[in-house]
Structures are given as C-alpha cells and as structure tokens.
Amino acid sequence: MATSRDLSESSASSCVSLHAISASIPDPSSAVSGPASVAASGSSLRLASSSSPRRWRPDKGIVGSVTRPNNPCPGEKANVISWLLMWWLIPLLRQGNRRSLNEDDLYTVQSRDASFTLGNRLQKEWDKELEESKIKKRKTSFVRALIRCFGWEFAAVGILAAIEECVLRIGQPLCLGYLIRYFNGEEGYTFIDGWIYSTGVVMGSLLYIFTHHPYFFGVQHGGMTLRISSCSLIYRKALRLSKAALGKTTTGQMVNLLSNDVNRFDTSAIFLHYIWIGPLQTLIVLGILWNEIGAACLAGIMLLILFVPFQTWLGRVFSKLRMATAHRTDERVRIMHEIINAMRIIKMYTWEKPFTALTEAARKSELGVIMETNYYRAVNMSLFLTSSKVIIFVCLLTYVLTDNVLTAEKVFVTSSLINNVRLVMTLFFPFAIAMGSETLISCKRLQEFLEMEEREDTSHIDKPNLRPKPKDCCLVMSGVTAKWSNITEDNTLTNVSFSVKAGELLAIVGPVGAGKGSLLNAILGELPAQSGRITVRGKIAYASQEPWVFSGTVRQNILFGKQLNEKKYEEVVRVCALEQDFKELPDGDMTTVGERGMALSGGQKARVNLARAVYADADIYLLDDPLSAVDSHVSRHLFDNCIMKHLKHKVRVLVTHQLQYLSSASEILVLKEGHMEAIGPYHQLVNSGLDFGTLISENQEEEITSSFSSRKASVKKSNSINKAILSERILRERKRTDSTSSTHQLEESILGSSISLHDSVEADNILTISGAHTTGSSTAISSGMSNSSYNDSKAIEAKNDNNNEKETSGNKEIRSHGSVKAKVYLKYFLAGGGWCIFALLIIINIFAQVLFSGIDYWLAYWANGEQIRAQIVLNSSTWDIPKNTTVFSYSNAPVPEGYMDTNTNIYIYSGMTVGLFLLSLCRTVVFFTLCMKSSKTLHNNMFRAIIRVPIKFFDTHPVGQILNRFTKDLGQIDELLPTTMFDVITIFLNFLGIIIIIALVNVWLLIPTVFLGMIFVYLRRFYLCSARDVKRLEGITRSPVFTHLSTSLQGLTTIRAFEMQQTFMDEFDSHQDLHSSAWFLFLCTTRWFGICLDWLSCIYISMVTYSFMALPDTLGGDIGLAISSAMLLSGMFQWGVRQSAEVENQMTSVERVLEYSSFEPEAALNTEAGKVPKDVWPDSGVLKFVNVSLKYNEETTVLKNLNFNIQAKEKIGIVGRTGAGKSSLITSLFRLTEPSGVIYIDGIKIQELGLHDVRGNISIIPQDPTLFSGTMRKNLDPFHQHSDEQLWKSLEEVQLKTAVSDMGGLETQMAEGGINLSVGQRQLVCLARAILRHNKILVLDEATANVDPRTDELIQQTIRTKFAECTVLTIAHRLHTIMDSDRVMVLQAGQLMEFDTPYNLLNNKTSIFFSLVQQTGQASAKQLHQIAEMAHQRQQDSEGNTASGSK
User: Fold this and answer.
1) I want to staple 158 with a disulfide (CB 3.0 to 4.6 A). Which of 273, 358, 1145, 1246 is the partner?
2) What predicted TM-score, i.e. pTM, was given to this entire model?
C-alpha cells in the first residue's frame, strides 16, 4: 500500500503494535554508558603482551581484574563498500555459529571512540565553557559545550535522513501510481514506461538501504560518543567532589546520571533531525496530494495534524504516569534492598510476615499505576494501529462524496503518502520534541552535578610536593577550627592543636561524636578548615574506621596498585595478623573478597584495610580505630607488632576506644564535642587527675544524647530526612563511615510511549507508542552494581530445578546458552489467567486481523469495480449522457457483475473501519490485563520463595544478583515484554493475512514468498547465534562500570588519601571501553542483519513487481494491492525476526524470575498441631546441645560434635579466634542453617518445632545493628504488639528516651540503614527490641564490637538488670564484657575446648582462655583477673546466702 517503510516500519504502524525497543539494539536502560568502542588510548589502557594477537587478557587492575583489548577491529581497515554492507563482520558471525562468543572475541574500537579520548575532548570544551561564562558573565551551558564538541559531526548525518524521507519515501509511491496507470491502460503509457516505473519502485527499496542504515548507524554512533564522554566527565567529577557536596547527593543519584540521564543522548539523537524533516516532508506530500485528489486531501491532512497534539498530550500523560511508576518502583526496590540486606535479622526476629505485607502493598501500589498506564496504552495502540486506516478512510470518503471516481492509483498513492507523513508527524516529530526536551532536562541535571562544589587544597593546609627525609617528617595542627557545612552553627572541631614527629604515636580518644574521625578528615583535606593551619610533611596513608574493601582479590586490596615486593608483602601480612587467615581462605591471598568484602569477616576486613595502609610505606599513618573489630589477642598483636614495631619510625595518629593501649602512646589527645579536653603523655594526664575511663563513661545519659545536639536545629526546621542529612551530625557519621546511601537508582523511562516501527525506528526506535518504559525498570542496578549481567545474562539451568544458578560469592552470573524453553512461555500465560483468557485473546486477534486485511482487500475490490464500471461507460454507445450535464458523473452507471454500488461500498468500508477500531481496543485491553496479572503473580511467587529460602542463599549470592530479579527483570516483565510480545502476535497474524491476500491476487507469488521465508529463517538462526552472545556480553560488561563508580565513592576518602584518583580514572575508562566494545559490536551485527534482510526484501519486491509485467491484463487495484503487500510482507519479515529475538531476550527475565521462584524453602514456620509446646515456653531457658555439628557445604564442618548444658538464668560468655565457630553456634541455635545432632530448650527438641516458635522465643542483639526506613515505632514493634507506654519505657531503659523525643518521638523517620543514629545508638535500639520481647533466652552476637566502652558498659548494665532472670549468651571481642559471666565457653576450629567459670579458667595457666587474657597486655590482664575474682566472690556469696536461706 505504499512505500517499503510504510510497510515495514509504518506498517508496523498499521499492522504492528509498535514497540519501542527492537532487537536491533539493547534498550537504553541496558546501556550503562552506551555503546562505544574500546580503544587503546594512552593512560587509560594498558595492552597485554600476548603470543596470540587476538586476545584480551584480564589485567590486574586496582579494583579487580580489568579486561583489556588487544584484538584490532577489522572495520578500521575495511573499504567503503565493506562498511556499507558490513561484510567485515562475517568472520565473527561465522565464529559465533561455531561456538559461543566471549570477551576474547570482542574488538577494540578506534581511538577516537575511547572513553579517555572522548572524556578529554568534552572536558576541554566544558572547561572552556566555564571560563567563557565567567569572562562574559553569562550562565554556563553544558549543552553549548556538547554542541561545540560534537555538533558538526551530528548535523552532517541528517542529510541522509532528509534524502530518505523527502525523496525516496515520496518517489516510490509516485512510481507505484504511474505503474498502476500503465496497467489501467491509460493513454500515453507504453510498455517501456511500465518497465521504467517498475524499476522506480525497486530502486526506492534499493537506495533505501544506502541511506537508512548509514543514517541510523551515524546517529547511534553520535549518541554513543555523547554518552561515553559524559560518563567519563561524571566519574572525573565524582572523584573531586567535596564532602559537603557528597552530603547533598547519593551514590544512587550518581549512578542514575550514568545509567539513565546520559542514555537520553541515544534516544534523542535518533529523532532529533525529524524536527525539521517532518514539516518539510508534510509540505511536499500536501502539494502532491492536492494534485492527486484535490481539496479532499485536506480532510485527511487536518485529521493527521490533530494527531500531533494528541500524541503530545498523550506523551505528557505517559510521562506523568511513568514518573509515578518510577517513584513507586523505587520505593518497592528500596524495601527489597533493605529486606535482602537484613534477611538474617528478619529471620531471627520472625518478621517475614510484616515485611511480606509491606512488599505486597508496595507492589500493589506500583501495579495500580502501571495498569492505568496500560489502559492509556491500549487506547493509544488501538488508535495508532487504526489511524492510518481512519485517515485514508476520511480522505477517500471525502473524495468519493464530492462526485469523484475512486481509482486504484488514487487509493494506493494516497495511502502510501499519508502513511509516510503520518509516521513522521505523529511519531518522529513529537518524539523529537519530547525527547529533546527530556534530554535538555537531563543535561541540566548533569550540569548541576558538574557544577557541584569540589574538594580543594585550602590555604589552611601546608603540604609541599617534595617528600622529606624520614626523620624530618611531621604533622602539626595549630588552632584549627572546622565544620562540615556552613548551615550549622556549631563547629565540628574548635581550636585543636597538636604536633607529632617521626617515631611518635598520638592517640586520640573521646566518646561517640567527639570529632575524632573529623580530625583525621581535616588532615586529609576532606573537612574544610575555617581557621588555623595544618602542616603535613610526608606521604600520608589512611586506614578508615569502616574497612573499605573492593571486589578484587585480597592481594589486590593490600597492594592497591603498588608493585609486589614479596619480602615486604610477607612482613606486612605477618604484622597485620593475616597469615592464619590466608591459610584458611580457599585461595589464600588470591581469594576474591566479593561484593562489599562478603567473603571476609569483619575482623579480616579491618586487618586487610590496615595492611593496605602499612604496605603503602608512607611517612604519616592516620589509623581510624582499626582495633575495634578484632579479637582482643589480635588487637594486642596489631598494636605491638604493627603500630609499635613495624611503624615505630613513622608519624602515627591512632583513633581508638581501646584504653589499655594509651600508656604506650607518646601523647594522648582527648576530644569531647570537637573541643580539646586534654593533651599530653599518659602519666602526665593521669597525674593531673584525669581518668580516661571516667571521662568516656561519665554523664551517660547526657552523652548518649549529645550526638543529637548538633542535629536538633535542623530537625526542628524540618522533619524530613533529606534536610536532616545535611546536618552536621550526619555528615560527621557519613565522614566516619564512608558509607553511601542506597545504590538503587531511579532509571526513568524515555517518553511514556514506545513504538515499534520496523527498521526506521527499529530500536533504532527506542520508544513505544504504547507508553512502555524503555528502560525496563524505574530502579536498578543497585548495589549490584554487582557483576551480574542484565536480563539477557540469565543463569544456566542447572540439573536441580530448585537451585538453577551456579553463582558464587562475588562472581559474575553465569551466561546461559540456547533459547528459552516453551514451558517458560506456557507458565507466563497461565500465570495471567489460564487457558480461557488466552483462548479469548486469540479469537479477538483473529477477527481483528480479518478486518485489518479485509479493508485493504476491499479498497482494491472497490477500485477494480470502479475501473470496470468506467470502462463499461466509455465503451458503451448505448449509455445516454444528458445533454445539459456539464460534469461527467458515474452515479447512474450500471454496476458491473460481481461488484457493488458506491453507497454499499461506502457502508461496508465504514463498518469495517469502525469494527477494526473496536476490536483493536478490545484485544489490547485484554492482552495487557493478562500480562499485568501474570507480572503480579510472578512477583509474588518469587518474593515468597526468596523470603523463605535458607540464609545460605544470601551468603552466596550478591545483593545485586538478587535485586536484579526485582528491578531489571521485573521491569522487563512489567514494561517491555507485553508490548514486544504483542508485536510478535500481531506480526504473525499480519503475515498470515498478507499471504492469503497475495494468494488471492496471484497464487504464483507464493513461490518467491516461501523461498524468501526459508532464507529469512536461515539468516535468523545464523544471526541470533552471535547476537545472543554479543548482547549477553554487553550485559555482563555493563555492571563493572556501575560497580567501579559505587566502589570508588565508598572508598573515596581512602582513594584521595593515597592520591590514586588518576589510576581509578584510568580503570573507569577501561571498564567503559570494554562495555562499549560489546555495545559497538552489537550495533554492527544488528546493522549487518538489517542490511541483509533489506537486500532480500529488495530482491523479493523486484520479483513481485516485474512478475506483473508478464501479466498485462491484471487490474490496477490488484497490482497496487500485491506490490504494496509484497513490500509490507518483506518489512514484516524483518520486524518479525527482530521482535521475536527481542521477545526471547525479554523472556529470559521470566525464566530468571521463575528460577528464583522454585527454591527449596526452610522448615515450616509453624509447629505441627500435635507438637505445639505449652503456652509459656521456654519458661526456664535451659539449653542442651547433644552432638551438634554444622556444615555450610559438603566439604567443611564448622561445628564439630558440640555437647554442653546451660542452666536457667546462666550468663555464658563465648570467645574464640575469628573462624572458631562462635557465630555458627548462634546460627545453629536459630536454625538459620539446620545442624545435625539435637538441641533442646527446656527439654523440647527444637528441630521438631516450627521456625517461628523457635526464633520468636529467642532474643538477639546482632553485631551489625539493623534499622529500617520508616518510623522508630516500626523499628521497635513492627507487629504493633506493644503500647506506646511500653515502647517509651524500653527507650528510657536504654537511655534513648530524651534523644528520640528531641528527634520527634516514636513517629521519627529513620533514614535508610538508620544513618541518622550513631552505631552505638543503633545498638541501643536493638537492645530496646530485646527488652520489649522479654524472652527467656538472649543472645549478644559481638553486639558491642563497634561501640565505645561507655556504650558497652551501658548495654552490659542493662542486661544485668533487665535480663537477670534470663539465660544470656554473649559473643564478645572485648574480654571485659564477659569476665563476670557465670561461665565462659572457648571455641577453637569448631570444637568446644573449654567451658568453665572465668575464675577457674584463669587459675589454669595452660588454658586457652588464660593465654587470651595474657595477650591483652599486663595491665589489662591484671584488671581482667580482678573482675573474674570479684565475680567469683559474688557467686560464692550468693550461693552461701542461698544455702543459709534454705536452712
């Protein structure tokens, strides 16, 4: 019915449901930093020397391995013809058919496309723009910098689009019209003319190949370069941000800039040229149609113009709905992130049900908006599907009703031209405007980020570039006053002065929030000084309080880019007490630590963090409390061997809570609320009457709330967390922990709508008129930023259906091979409503297709009838024309046999058009309702499986891999899959309808159709073998870019302290280049496939067109119908192949969700009816372990035949080296992993009880205090089981009542992770939870490891009073914590070595416990002996009193 695009693309308009993302390129959300090429450019890339020229090797980068290219792209040396036809890709495609492609097969790209090169280009222009704006006193414009950098390159490509739209797309329908005239036998048209016009139709399709594909490749490449350069600029800026600026943004927001905002360049680049091409084409078409059908064309053109504001309005609606969906999705994913990170706590607290209800409520809210979007989408898709028919109907009806004769030429020329201009003006033109405006908004966001405050070397810091001699190194601070933010009144540090020379150790002590870490940050230049002077002479090394480890090997974490000196390395490992750990780790120091260092314990991470600083061989060491997270004997080893011996000639500043080491310090600086309380040597301070223990412990209630004081003002101004985060206290906490907020970022969708148009917007079209999010999900990658691949990187189906993913800690997800199984499709549809709904949908689709194809056939039938009628009139001598007639009319002409009169034709034509619209609307509504129901069912099934899976799953699967299912995969299922699948269904039905129409016109045309189909099937198989691998590689290589940004921000203070910014920039460029190479190759392979199919389509059209030259008696209507259908059919083949591949890609998301829905759950939550214990159980708290062993895997036994009894009300201390099995014992008690043997509580075998009956009757205060977003009330009592009075009483008992009241009471909103409370305060909230539960058994799992002695003493005192009648198990690093226990359990390598009172164990000088106490130092050991003796004496007195009372 017109041009090849009208058929392939636009007929995707008329025939297809139009989708936004074709298989031709991955959707924008999938691009982290779009496709670009990898190039070996200077400092950003280091090429590996290899014997094989075609290899990439993983280079040992700073943050894990970086795959670097050494495989030149053949395209660089290819000639013009080879590039136009993409022949240079054929060897790679053949290889992809022989075996799976991997990273070794990726090509490097031209150096001009490398991240380093493009980043430098844009950086130069941006710096120039900043300078000019200052000189000319005008506003800075990031857009202006982009235009200066890339504008001319982009503008040149638009000429190709203009030729395609304004010459080829108009010329081809005109040639078709002249060809129909020739077959109608009009005068003046010869046989030669027929061949000329036939060739014109064919040439339109042929020349299309040489304009369309270069244009789209050009604009995609342009968008790619914009994205890569912007990403490079963002990362460089991120490394320069000040702490104040970091307080105003989050990792998630920065990742959002990388993953979402920069992707606007891809989408807007495709359509931007249509802003001027659209109106130009419309004017040309209007002129031609006026010549063809006169004023009747105005009716259709006016209706067409009305569609433009309608699409614009609908775009706004979709945009608002998209944002609403994005916010709801973001909320759901935030909840999921908290749940996954806190799953151990949720299981131990038996909070599965409230969190399930919370998640399902969030999902219901999200689906409500998505469903509303789908209703608009259904209307829009129905309108778009039928709009071409309606506009043509209006034009032709007006033409006929004004007493004109309908001819085949008028029908098909009008239809083709209107289809072309409709496609441009109702899709491309509004999209260009909408996406252009969205891109401007994204540019504004990027500009705001690029203009944020940077960390600057202030005049207050004196640090020469030359490194002095070791003996001359020193650190001096003179009268320094500093604060994090100017919006706070109170200073963080006030008039602080000290001096440390080489060989001296300065110890800094003080309560939580005193400013200890802030002082170190001031030295590092992170905390801006307001006054005073800091003199730094020497190279600085820094060990942060919260250990920063990245996802590389342990060795990479220690070396941190330095060359390996084995002797030095072994010495550092020894003094940092890592030798034994390396023996226990599976691969020694080459063990991959995994995401967030999940393969290491807290103590191991702290020692690796310290070893990094020690190996750096600096002159000045800033150590922020490295001793708190380790056992007491390890702490003593680190202090004596590392800090005092190995670093004895260095300048050392140690922040610590370990008071036993203060006597060894050269000087001690005591801080309180940022002021210097005292400074001097230990004995001088003691002689002056200063008691360190009293200083840190006194005024407990005042000090526990003092950390809130600096926040009160901002809390009073606003209760919002965003405002509170800017307060000094939280900046202080942020500074201390280097923590970042959630890495889930909002990935907004492109426009609300996405249209599938064949090649022309082939995903090349990145939109869908349906309103789908082309980004898939509104949130994503997340902390995962894990090395997990995107939806196409689904895990291989394992033999065990209950655990299909062979994923290991910190490793990438395994790529799948092959196609999605048919049972996955079946499960998807059955989840949406069963067979009945699906059958109804099929019936509606068939009827809609009958009408759709029938309209074209009816127009041809009508035109043929009018042609025969005209011939009868002209050839008949008996037909009388009235003498007074001035206008020739056919109104009274006889109707040919087998045809109908004009009025009947009009009625039938009108009825078919109305029926088509109603059925189209009906089928889209039914289809999207089915898809939404399926999506809801799949999510609920997956969440219920995840919440019930054993805890081992979360220990072996990174958060990012799990979140990927709930973000990207679910986003694909919610947003993209329905539209893509609707396309495929519609294409399949269209294909059948067209085949039938062509057979009705000329049955012999079935032969080339079948032949073409066979070739297409072969090409599809040939192409998809490589395309699947390339796209999956693109997904796999995307995550490291996000991971690198997230990791860099988490360790930003450390990176800047070690001056490693340039190295990290180079690695970011390398990660981005690797991803870009996969993207670039995907674009090229897709372009190759499109070119091949277009060549075959051109051949097919030429066969059909020229075949009619051998059949001169064919009617013009049949000619127009057959040729336009042939063009439509070939375009349909192309789009069908792409969309079927895309459906399969997106169905991997369904497969991945189904995989996570089939895990074997834990034991039952509730006890079987006959085994339910009595109402009050346990009533004593007696514990008995009989032959209890525990294995986390088949190879390693972590607990070995434990046998012991614990009496009611006993207080038991549990000690042992890291890896001794302390936490595993708690795991067994809570049945987080099912142990072998028998555990009894009050004589009842807990393995026979439901998990909630066991866990709900044991309280725990965990090592890492976990708080959730939401109110304080929700954090204390999620089940609403307690009154306000009870909640306030529990807070009062842990001395948090005043603090919580000042923050706003029980309805105070907690920030994510509770970062608006200090670590100690979070521990007290966990203690308040335990008080509320008041169970007979309490477990403390290293609960005081990260708090100062004052908070530790507060917790212990509360336990002694509130839990006197309970059995208490305490795992502790600090031996002071458990020295007054009734008995102490000593574990070693999973075995119970000693179990007796502390007094008895200390009297046995051969005991392990005695050696642990001795390792704390002479003074500390003496104090511990005294505590044990006093506890023993109290016990003797208590037993004596009990005995006398009984007498």
Assistant:
1) 273
2) 0.70
